[in-house]
UniProtKB/TrEMBL annotation:
This is Mobile element protein. Residues 12-22 have a biased composition (Basic and acidic residues). Residues 1-22 are annotated as: Disordered. It comes from the Bacteria.
Length: 497
C-alpha cells in the first residue's frame, strides 16, 4: 500500500557533490539488497509484485532527495547574494533578508525547499518568490505533477476521489479537494488559451498528409456539431441543460480519417462560445493553409442550433485570404434520415416484417442517384392506399416533410462519389467520448465552471495535442527580471552550500 511520506528537505550543509554522492550510494545499496533478496528465494508472482513495489519506493525516495537538493541550488545559499531588486509584470519588488520554507508537490511526493522572497513596492500586492516562477510551480505543484494530475482529470472513467487516490498510490501525493481544484483550474485555463493555435497547426499537418496521399478523392475537412444534456448542480436539486461539442475531421484522398480535433463547452444560452471557437478554427485553418483548398463539408443533424450555424455563418463565409466564396457541402446525417424512413415504414405497415422489408429497400435506394425522390414516391403510393389514424397521419407527415424539405442535402450518391462522409458518427461519438465517458458517470453533477475546467483539458487530450499545448503553456509563463536582468539558468546560480 502506498503511503505519503513526510516532506523531504535536502538543504543540509556540506559539499553538494559529496551529499549527492552519499544519497546515490545509499539508494544503490538499498536496490542491491532488494535484488539479492529477490534472487535468494524461488520466484513467485507474489514475490515479483512485491519486488517491483519495493523498487518503486526506493526510486521514489531517491527522487525525493535529489530533486529538492537541486531545487535548493536554483537560488544562492544566502539571501544577500540574491539581487536586491526584481521586476515582475510591471511591478518592482525588493528582496527580504531571510529564506522561508515552501512545500512543493512533485511526482516523487511532497518536498520542502527554501526560497527567497521579494516584497512589493506597493502595499496590497502579494510577495514575489522568483524560484516558484522559475520552476513553473502551480499552487506549489511542479509542472510534471500538475501535468500528470490534469491528464488523469482529462481521462475517461474516473471521479475526483479515484483520481486523488491514484495520485496517492502512484506519487505519494496526499492532496485533498481544496488543493486539487486550484491546480487543475489554473492549468485548464492556461491550456484553454493555447488550445486554438495547436488545433489549427494539427489540422494543417493532417491536411499536408491528406494532400500527399494517393486516391481518387479531394482531401476533405468535415465539420460537425451536436448537443447533449448535462446534469448541473443547483442550490436546490439538479437541472439538465444542453452542453455542446464540435469536431473538425480531416480525410485523405482514399476517404480515410486522419484525425479529429474536438471542442466542447458547458451549457450556455445560444452557445456563443462554441460558435466563436469553431468559426475561429475554420477561419485560421483557411488563413494559414497555403496548399490547394480541400473540400469543406458540414455533416450534422437538423437541430435549430446546427441549422442556424450553417445558414448564418458557414453559408456566408468567404476565404479569409482570397475573398472567394466557400463551396460548403452540407450533408444531413444518414442516420437521422434513416430514422425517418423507419418512421414512414411503421406508419404505413405497422411493426411487422413487411415494414422491415420496405424500410431496408428504401435505405438502399436512399444511397442511389435520385434516391430520396424514389423513397418519397414509394411512400406516397402506399399512403394513398392506407387509412391512417390522426396520430399515424401526424407522424407520417412529419417524417415525409423531413425528407422532402431536405432533399438538396440528402444526395448521398453524389457525396459518396466525391468522398464526403455521409454520417455524423464522429460528432455523435464525440458526445460519448467527451461527455458521457467523463462527465456523465453515476451520480455526477456539475457547476458550469467546474465542467468547463475538465472540458478544456479533455478536448486537448482527445485532440492529441497535449504535449504541444502544455509545452507552450510552460514557455509562456512570465519570469521575473532579477537586478535588471532575466534570471539566469539554474546552473549559473549553482553554488556550494
Amino acid at each position: 500500500m502506498a503511503t505519503c511520506a513526510a516532506p523531504s528537505e535536502s538543504d543540509a550543509p556540506g559539499h553538494p557533490d559529496r551529499s549527492r554522492d552519499d544519497r546515490w550510494a545509499a539508494s544503490g545499496a538499498q536496490l542491491r539488497a532488494l535484488v539479492d533478496a529477490f534472487r535468494s528465494e524461488p520466484v513467485t508472482p507474489a514475490r515479483t509484485l512485491q519486488f517491483e513495489h519495493d523498487v518503486q519506493i526506493v526510486v521514489r525516495e531517491l527522487g525525493r532527495q535529489v530533486v529538492p537538493f537541486r531545487y535548493n541550488q536554483v537560488e544562492p545559499a544566502a539571501a544577500v547574494d540574491q539581487p536586491r531588486h526584481a521586476r515582475f509584470e510591471h511591478e518592482t519588488y525588493t528582496r527580504v533578508h531571510a529564506k522561508t520554507r515552501q512545500n512543493v508537490w512533485t511526482v516523487f511526493g511532497q518536498l520542502v525547499v527554501r526560497r527567497i522572497g521579494d516584497r512589493p513596492s506597493q502595499a496590497g500586492e502579494p510577495m514575489l518568490f522568483p524560484r516558484a516562477h522559475r520552476l513553473g510551480l502551480v499552487h506549489g505543484a511542479s509542472p510534471a505533477l500538475a501535468a500528470r494530475a490534469c491528464q488523469l482529470l482529462a481521462a475517461a472513467g474516473a471521479n475526483q476521489q479515484q483520481i486523488l487516490a491514484r495520485l496517492r498510490a502512484d506519487h505519494g501525493v496526499g492532496w485533498g479537494v481544496k488543493k486539487w481544484r486550484p491546480v487543475s483550474r489554473a492549468v485548464s485555463d492556461e491550456m484553454g488559451v493555447y488550445r486554438h493555435d495547436a488545433q489549427v497547426d494539427q489540422l494543417r499537418t493532417w491536411l499536408a498528409a491528406a494532400g500527399a496521399s494517393t486516391g481518387r478523392h479531394k482531401p476533405v475537412v468535415c465539420v460537425g456539431r451536436d448537443g447533449i444534456t448535462l446534469r448541473l448542480r443547483m442550490k436546490r436539486g439538479s437541472l439538465y441543460e444542453v452542453a455542446s461539442t464540435s469536431t473538425v475531421r480531416v480525410y485523405d484522398r482514399r476517404g480515410t480519417r486522419l484525425g479529429t480535433v474536438y471542442l466542447a463547452y458547458a451549457p450556455e444560452p445560444g452557445r456563443p462560445a462554441m460558435r466563436g471557437a469553431l468559426t475561429a478554427v475554420i477561419r485560421d485553418v483557411l488563413t494559414r493553409w497555403e496548399g490547394p483548398v480541400p473540400r469543406w463539408c458540414d455533416v450534422t443533424d437538423t437541430g435549430d442550433n446546427e441549422t442556424g450555424y450553417d445558414d448564418r455563418v458557414l453559408r456566408r463565409m468567404t476565404h479569409p485570404r482570397t475573398g472567394a466564396a466557400l463551396a460548403w457541402v452540407r450533408v444531413v446525417d444518414y442516420y437521422h434520415a434513416s430514422e425517418r424512413v423507419w418512421a414512414l415504414a411503421n406508419m404505413l405497415f405497422g411493426d411487422n416484417a413487411r415494414a422491415v422489408g420496405w424500410a431496408k429497400t428504401m435505405l438502399t435506394w436512399l444511397l442511389l442517384p435520385g434516391g430520396v425522390n424514389r423513397v418519397l414516391h414509394s411512400a406516397a403510393a402506399f399512403r394513398a392506399a392506407r387509412t391512417l389514424t390522426r396520430v399515424q397521419k401526424k407522424e407520417y407527415d412529419r417524417a415525409y416533410a423531413y425528407l422532402r424539405n431536405r432533399m438538396s442535402h440528402i444526395d448521398y450518391a453524389t457525396y459518396r462519389r466525391v468522398g464526403v462522409p455521409l454520417g455524423s458518427g464522429g460528432t455523435e461519438a464525440a458526445c460519448k467520448t467527451v461527455f458521457i465517458q467523463r462527465l456523465k458517470l453515476r451520480g455526477m453533477r456539475w457547476a458550469k465552471d467546474g465542467a468547463q475546467t475538465i472540458l478544456n483539458l479533455r478536448v486537448v487530450f482527445l485532440s492529441g495535442i497535449w504535449d504541444v499545448v502544455y509545452g507552450r503553456v510552460l514557455a509562456a509563463r512570465p519570469q521575473p527580471i532579477m537586478g535588471g536582468h532575466v534570471a539566469a539558468e539554474p546552473n549559473e546560480l549553482e553554488i556550494a552550500a
